[in-house]
Amino acid sequence: MNKADILTGKGLRKKYGDLEVVKGVSVSIAAGEFVCLTGKSGSGKTTLLSLLSGLEYPTDGSVLLDGKDITIASEDELALFRRDHVGFIFQSFNLIPTLNAWENVALPLFPVKMPGDEKRKKATELLARMELTERMDHLPSALSGGEKQRVAIARALVNHPRILFADEPTGNLDSATGENIMDILKRLNKEEGVAILMVTHDEDIAKTADRVIRMRDGEIV
Amino acid sequence: MNVSYLKGELLHQKRRTLASIVGLSIGVALLVITNALSMAYYQAARIPLKEIGADITVQRSGNVPKDLSGSVFPCSAVTIRDGDVRKIAALPGVEGVGRAVLLWIFDPHQAWIVLGIEQTNTVGPAVLRNAVRQGRFLEQGKAEAIVEAAYAHKFGIKVGDTLSLAKRTYPVVGILDASKAAKIAIANVYLPLSEAQGIAASSNQVQDVSPFDPHDVNLLFIRAESSKIPALAASLRTMLGKQATIGTPDSFLKLLGSLFALSDKFTVAASLIAIIIAALVAFKTMAGNIAERAREIGVLKAVGWTGGNVMSQIMAESVVQSLMGGVLGLAVAYVGAFFLSFMTVNIPIPWEMSPVPHFLPGGGDQIYKTLNLPVYIPWTLAAFAVLLSLIIGVLTGSLLTRAISRIKPSEVLRHE
Predict the structure, then answer these.
(1) Which of B405, B409, B293 is closest to A165 using CA atoms?
(2) Which residues of chain B lie closer than 8 angstroms to A92, CB-CB?
């Protein structure tokens, strides 16, 4: 792993039964780098994202994330590592429908021993940055798609991660809202140095990245 | 465990929460009501004895008098020796003993059912002092009589009249209404015990059938510790022999027969069914809940919740829902118990305890004590129901551990 690399995957393989979805992939992401992962449906890009982010264990290979080999960590160790070092943004937002906006942002902090006021303050600040102060007490069902994704971004940032994993974050949004979300992510990347690994189908978005990794049939091409 | 998350799940997932709470509450209500009903029958069976301040009655059966004239003992109640009474009073568990003498007096123009009672004893028929409607109750050391209201009305007897019984005379000092009292130990005329003992001791018909000394009796009323009633009944049977008739709450329950037996067996079956329903509903609802929320649980794990964090949150939901179900079920049971308490039940009185000669018109008919079923929910049953709900909640939560641990954080991506 290069000193500047925040994420390195080596010889990653993932098999589901006889089906090998990721075939010996090696990839590195430098701190502060914005990388897009593209490829057709079924090319293995989302699986690779889940292996690199520690959502899933590889069948073979290793992943060094922020200096830690996450392939040998237990599930609970991995959960705590994700909480402290990683942020996630998903295509369908994955907000908890019964929690309001600020509670969704503070969700990763719920199990943390920290005064409730402090959790709320952190969430409130992030929502303010996302220009959602007025929507703080609203349930996800009362938010637009763009607002939901901004809440999800705020949730991903609540623990000040050095890397964000984004799986088609604009996939469920109209183009104007998608551009707005991309602006936020680019700003985070440029101004705060947060590394981003984003899965996307959209070639226009991919072009704006520092680097594009293309996948086909489980391999980088 | 996060309270706002818990509150959000319970309040916003109304259908799921209600299904769980209502299902559990039905089980708990069924459990509580069936047990309360069963206890009510047990309580009802105690009432005829309780109304005369006793838990056990003791009689001995003997021979039928050869000649039904003068003063005789009913064949179901012959002499109990004073020595036996003293031994009985000393048995463990006996809290008090009331003595009485029941006589049938056949005078040339009138038949009387006469009961000699201890005027001041709180165990036995002297509790009828509360049923005096005119005049006063018997006083210590005075040879006087009180008459039952229906009998007094039938024969035009009033306070101040003089009764002539077995060649003795007694001023009538009171009229009492025993119609609402227990059907045990009621009579037409009540005398001081010593007077009835005197009549019995001087009666040849009594002495021919069952030798009787002036301190002996033929009816005993025992107040006893509840837990020792069955053991005491067994001791009394041993002491007084095969001819002893020992009346306990169980004697009344046996006479309630199929109705009680059905209720008793039904209680066990219904309780089991209720517990199974409650547990199954809780488990099915929570298991469905976990399946529905696989993606949400995946999100929790993805953003850094450990398996233990998720588990404690789900456990808290399960326990709170179960507790709410338990409390609602208990409330339903209280309402049910209130309405059931208007139900009446006829408690048959064993024929041996009926003072009426069976050869008189209506004397052979089965008599009943009719009363409202005393349905109530003791705090122990209420606490058990709530505790059971809590246990079901914890067990359900625990059983779902494996299902929750199977949900991987990558669920959040798999369904994209």
Answers:
(1) B409
(2) 415-416
